[in-house]
């Protein structure tokens, strides 16, 4: 309860502080902030690429059919690669999985900035990480969400996930406007060709992948799956434990000071292999499985609708129809995503009142309606 000497404005501020989940974020650990900031940078990069991807292919001389096939195969390849990586993430290590995904971003950006072959670009997009839609792609989200759920107590998860999503949408919005302005500046003021300006955007994408790799290095051991271990950990600081173990970890003496026997070392290795295999197909209770199927059905329908009008193709259509400067095109698209950010900020408050599933459904519906109304307003011919 607020102190009696607080004025109504202070009471309103305290109420808003709680409703927006800021009280939870204030108590969050360093790892939570790193994960959220890392996702902001990733979605920023996705936004810059989504604005220019189809235009980049057009500048390369590809046909509309080739562009559509490219995006289809890219998404199908991402499904396979992401599924495989997320299945082994807990066994291989969550931080290593995130590191591998960030490396995929850096490699894909480099290939797109330098290569011209359609097949080479397609291979880089499938094996690496390139988002045709500006939405999440790759193994990142599944690993990050499971990590956040582990780092945050049940009572604060809705607040943390609210900011995890809102900051991500803000990242896409920022990437769109920065990408558009950068292309215009490089083309008009410096004299680069459109294709060279688009290539510069992919170099930014590469840089973001490298920065994400650095962020992954500073994540602590608390992000990994907690398992019972006979190794001594009292002398280790979880906040400063390195991502990669030392080369001689397996030959350290035990806590009692005695060396590990060769037979025990072999048994430990066998145990590791057994755990790895088990993590490939983690058990899900029938009750949780039913909820999972319902959620997957909802996400499938949402993705089916958005897949009919990929974000990069919307930008491509607007560019061909209206011949907008890339800065203006990026600004228009950025505004639609920024409006989504405002709606997402209050999702935790809605979830506390309506429940998680009704709140999620309401937000998805209103967000899609908002996006399409924005597009209709842009596409409406002037009289």
TrEMBL record:
Signal peptide: none
Keyword Cell inner membrane applies: no
Residues covered by region (Disordered): 245-264
Annotated localization: Membrane
Spans traversing the lipid bilayer: 32-57, 69-88, 161-179, 200-219, 291-317, 329-351
The keyword Transmembrane helix belongs to this UniProt entry's keyword annotation: yes
Keywords of the record: Membrane, Transmembrane, Transmembrane helix
Topology of this chain in the membrane: Multi-pass membrane protein
Major site of localization recorded for this protein: membrane
Protein name: Para-aminobenzoate synthase, (PABA)
Organism: Curvularia kusanoi
């Amino acid at each position: 309860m607020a102190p009696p000497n607080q004025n109504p404005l202070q009471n309103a501020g305290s109420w808003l502080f709680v409703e927006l989940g800021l009280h939870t974020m204030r108590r969050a650990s360093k790892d939570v902030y790193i994960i959220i900031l890392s996702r902001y940078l990733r979605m920023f990069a996705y936004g810059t690429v989504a604005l220019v991807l189809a235009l980049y292919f057009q500048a390369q001389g590809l046909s509309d059919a080739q562009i559509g096939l490219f995006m289809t195969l890219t998404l199908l390849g991402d499904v396979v690669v992401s599924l495989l990586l997320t299945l082994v993430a807990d066994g291989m290590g969550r931080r290593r999985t995130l590191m591998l995904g960030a490396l995929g971003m850096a490699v894909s950006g480099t290939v797109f900035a330098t290569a011209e072959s359609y097949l080479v670009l397609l291979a880089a997009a499938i094996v690496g990480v390139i988002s045709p839609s500006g939405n999440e792609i790759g193994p990142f989200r599944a690993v990050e969400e499971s990590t956040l759920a582990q780092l945050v107590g049940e009572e604060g998860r809705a607040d943390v996930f609210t900011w995890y999503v809102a900051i991500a949408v803000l990242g896409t919005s920022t990437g769109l406007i920065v990408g558009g302005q950068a292309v215009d500046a490089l083309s008009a003021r410096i004299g680069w060709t459109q294709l060279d300006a688009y290539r510069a955007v992919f170099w930014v994408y590469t840089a973001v992948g490298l920065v994400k790799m650095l962020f992954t290095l500073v994540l602590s051991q608390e992000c990994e799956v907690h398992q019972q271990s006979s190794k001594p950990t009292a002398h280790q600081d979880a906040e400063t434990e390195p991502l990669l173990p030392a080369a001689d970890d397996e030959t350290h003496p035990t806590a009692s000071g005695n060396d590990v026997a060769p037979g025990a070392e072999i048994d430990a290795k066998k145990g590791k292999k057994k755990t790895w295999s088990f993590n490939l197909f983690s058990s899900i209770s029938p009750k949780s499985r039913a909820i999972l199927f319902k959620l997957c059905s909802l996400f499938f329908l949402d993705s089916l609708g958005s897949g009919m009008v990929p974000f990069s193709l919307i930008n491509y259509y607007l560019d061909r129809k209206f011949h907008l400067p890339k800065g203006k095109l990026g600004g228009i698209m950025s505004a639609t995503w920024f409006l989504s950010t405002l709606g997402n900020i209050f999702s935790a408050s809605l979830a506390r009142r309506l429940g998680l599933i009704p709140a999620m459904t309401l937000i998805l519906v209103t967000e899609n309606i908002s996006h399409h109304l924005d597009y209709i307003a842009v596409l409406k011919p002037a009289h």
